[in-house]
Amino acid sequence: MPENPRTTEAEPLGRPSRRTVLAGAGAAALTASAVSFASPSSAAAASVPVLGDYDVVVVGAGASGMTAALTAAKRGLRTIVVEKAPTFGGSAARSGAGVWIPNNPVILAAGVPDTPALAAQYLAAVVGPEVPAARRSAFLANGPRMISFVLANSPLRFRFMAGYSDYYPELPGGMPNGRSIEPDQLDGNILGAELARLNPSYLAVPAGMVVFSADYKWLNLAAVNAHGADVAATCLARGTAAALAGQKPLTMGQSLAAGLRAGLMRAGVPVLLNTPLTDIYMAGGRAAGAYVTSNGSPALITASRGVIVGSGGFEHNLAMRAQYQQAPIGQWSVGAKENTGDGILAGQRAGAALGLLDDAWWGPAIPIPGTPYFCLAERTLPGGLMVNQAGQRFVNEAAPYSDVVHVMYAKNQGAPDIPAWLIVDQNYRNRYLFRDILPTLPFPDAWYQNGSVSKAWTLASLAGQIGVPAQTLVNTVIRFNEEAWSGKDSDFHRGDSVYDHYYTDPAVTPNSGLGVLWEAPFYALRIVPGDLGTKGGIQTDERARALRPDGSVIPGLYAAGNASVAVMGHSYAGAGSTIGPAMTFGYVAANDIADHP
Fold it and tell me: Whole-angstrom Cα distance, residue 290 to residue 481?
């Protein structure tokens, strides 16, 4: 592989040109906060070198961008990807990489009784009328085609996540056994030196093991459940086999990103890292390229057919979050750190309407030092409950993670329930994995030092440490224990949905998600509104075309993934409702460009 830090391919950058174009109003116009380049003729000063001429420029090397680029290349379009980060994969590479696509060939082969009618019924019930029917239909129709395309044009293979139900399986068309898939194991050696440029996972897989997302529910129980112990042994056996074969095994988001990147390498698509977008190049009223920073200098890459923005959300742009989202908000996202809304803002300067900026792919998080911990299984296991600053329960702890944060932000007696506290006892700690901390082992000192966890020998003392009324907390736990003994949560209905039981302990009866708190010491873990990324951005139609505020199309400009308004609206249909639509609309955008010369 070449040592050029800008590109990780040996291919030429299209048709490099010595000519320059007039653009902007000086060097300042090429920053991320620049005003729009209305047209080359509107410029008064700076000459910007043309780095290359292509049919399609894709912004972002995450799931949506790489799927779009692969599709465009396979449709015969000269395609290039520009990526702000020094790595490829974006937030997708950091994730568990669930992919929610109804009626896809993987789940149908596994015997899932899905149909287009059931999927349409379910998605409509989940997202409601705020998402146009045409966009919902485009997702449902193109999702299975996208999976088939990726299977045919990359080394990626997928596994059905059996038992991981849709998030609202009781709604019409819901699937209690789920529709989600995840990437199968992939040997990272297929990338050669490019493997070093893969964005690392948010939470590293234990050394020597090969773990799939679907394994984690059992690894949490490995100390107290025979099947959990078997799964742990299987994960270790996979790792041993891979090591003996000289492989570099990848799963989850690492597998997804590596597989898509391998597809681009085979298709001859250059990926320029360390090359941030600064603006959309508009010519003749259409998107005709991208202004970027290349090797520290401004440059232009032209696109004769279109520009696809797949640059992610704005989760790490606190100014945008403060402007559009409800307080309190903080650095509690696990999305890729480079996601600061560059593509969204560039689209807006090009005339695009924005929407859904108030929302995100929320989830309760513990603000531990470094990267916050997205608290998925731990709040649903028996022997734990969540309370607000009044010391009271306020939510079904096992509800879909986005719903829990929506409830946290809802005003309760005039104020949000932020922060909240996850209360557990020593019996809970003796039984279950917590993040990557084995049962019985203490929480790290740094967690105590930054206020992420408190510990006390009585509930009253614990209440004093976290600033909630002592007697109220004691009464709340007494009430919760009564509900746990009965197996029926009449207050918040925890366990009523099939989904509530996914991350629970089947040995606990009569409700696998409800267990009493009885063994001192007791712990309180601080819960804040974390997220996997924001879900608002450029308004698009069913063809992934960017729309102006009046609903008209901006020719040549497309958006997908978290740079666009989510087809899920304010809801979340199932595991992988971020990545599934992101890949699908990247695929839709590239095909639309190819279909409409």
Answer: 59
pLDDT, the chain, mean: 92
pTM: 0.92
In this predicted structure, what is the pLDDT of residue 411? 80
Residue with tokens 């000192």: 445
| Chain center to CA of 406 | 17
Q: How far is the CA of 302 from the CAs of 5, 16, 46, in angstroms?
A: 21, 10, 17
CA 134 – CA 131 distance, rounded (Å): 8
Listed residue (550, 596, 536, 560) closest to 352, CA to CA:
550
Integer distance in angstroms from the first to the last C-alpha of the chain? 34
In the block, which residue shows the tokens 């993934």? 561
Integer Cα distance of 306 and 289 in angstroms: 7
pLDDT band at 412 (very low <50, low <70, confident <90, very high): confident
**SS3 of residue 138 by DSSP:** helix
Q: Is 261 helix (H, G, I), strand (E, B) or coil?
A: helix
Q: Is the Cβ–Cβ distance between 530 and 244 less than 8 Å?
A: no
Q: Give how far Cα 466 sits from Cα of 289, 380, 471, 480, Å.
A: 53, 21, 13, 19
Judged against a pLDDT cut of 90, whether residue 579 lies above it is answered with yes
Residues, the chain? 597
SS3 578: coil
